[in-house]
Specification:
The protein is of the alpha+beta class. The chain has helices at 2-25, 64-75, 88-97, 111-116, 158-169, 186-194, 209-215, 241-258, 260-269; strands at 39-46, 48-49, 53-55, 61-62, 79-86, 102-108, 117-118, 125-134, 200-204, 220-222, 227-236. The protein folds into two domains: 39-126 and 230-276, Periplasmic binding protein-like II (D-Maltodextrin-Binding Protein, domain 2, 3-Layer(aba) Sandwich), CATH 3.40.190.10; 127-228, Periplasmic binding protein-like II (D-Maltodextrin-Binding Protein, domain 2, 3-Layer(aba) Sandwich). α2 (64-75) packs antiparallel against α9. The longest helix is centred in the N-terminal third of the chain and has 24 residues, at 2-25. The protein is globular. The model is unreliable at 1-28 (pLDDT under 50).
Length: 277
């Protein structure tokens, strides 16, 4: 009888240890009040926009903004984040309908977006509009491009808006360029500067230009930014998501103050985009 009692006691201890290990292995985030009901946030992000966001050979979503999301996941207790790689248009549509809770797409602030989405007050990065020119061109700014052959500008997006805004403010300078949706790789566009087809290329610096120039040994350089545009995560507009927006603000502020955002910027863009602030 005593042996049975001892065996029963041992069995209870073993089961208790297994339960404790299982609880540890499956531990979920908890908030300050001990609530384990953590909400999962679906974040849409691009799948081919390297180094901003892409899917690597292992099928993992990575890039500057996805890695920022992963860091937010570490510092925000009440949410966990699920990255979903999608086409750009599908991301915006899904955010508007509520299919996705957040969108990471290197997006700048506009009044239209502020009406449609919840926009955190803390930015996640910087879009730097630069001019890519031949090393020996002597070009340092937009005013040096009068009479020069400028690579075509896309009529949509921040780059054209930046150039057009500068022209409106400086009507004494007349620039010549075509508008076209140029769907060629960044490496080829930089080669067109190196071989003299064009004198200048306006473009955001977040498309791996520094690495392309170094790897292909192109005689091309970038000017200082002609425009610095803070970028933001967009959040589906709902009362419930107002708390999410506040949590994102708090998390981004913590990552900025710790230097983590700058660290990720150097890792993916080969420069600290926050240095120009």
């Amino acid at each position: 009888m005593r042996k049975k009692s001892i065996l029963f006691t041992i069995l209870i201890l073993v089961l208790s240890l297994l339960a404790a290990c299982n609880s540890s292995d499956n531990e979920t985030k908890v908030d300050a009040e001990g609530n384990s009901d953590v909400r999962t946030i679906k974040v849409a992000t691009g799948h081919t926009s390297k180094p901003l966001s892409w899917v690597d050979e292992a099928g993992e979503v990575t890039g500057y903004e996805p890695e920022v999301i992963k860091e937010l996941d570490k510092v925000i207790d009440e949410y966990e984040f699920e990255l979903v790689a999608v086409e750009d248009s599908a991301g915006e549509t899904g955010l508007a309908t509520g299919k996705y809770d957040m969108l990471a797409g290197g997006m700048g602030f506009t009044e239209e977006r502020a009406k449609q989405y919840l926009v955190p007050s803390e930015s996640n990065g910087r879009a730097l509009i630069k001019i890519y020119v031949a090393e020996d061109s002597g070009i340092e700014g937009i005013e040096d491009l009068v009479g020069k052959n400028i690579s075509p500008l896309s009529p949509a997006g921040a780059t054209f808006a930046t150039v057009k805004g500068w022209e409106d403010e400086n009507p004494e300078y007349k620039l010549k360029y075509d508008l076209a949706d140029v769907g060629i790789p960044m490496a080829d566009r930089l080669k067109e500067i190196a071989n003299g087809k064009y004198d200048a290329l306006f473009y955001p610096s977040s498309y791996g230009q520094i690495k392309i120039i170094e790897d292909k040994k192109l005689a091309v350089r970038a000017t200082d930014p002609i425009k610095i545009i803070p970028t933001f995560f967009m959040i589906h507009k709902s009362t419930e998501n107002e708390k999410l927006r506040d949590a994102i603000d708090k998390g981004l502020k913590e990552l900025a103050e710790s230097g983590k955002l700058s660290e990720l910027s150097v890792e993916f863009y080969d420069e600290d985009v926050f240095q120009y602030d």
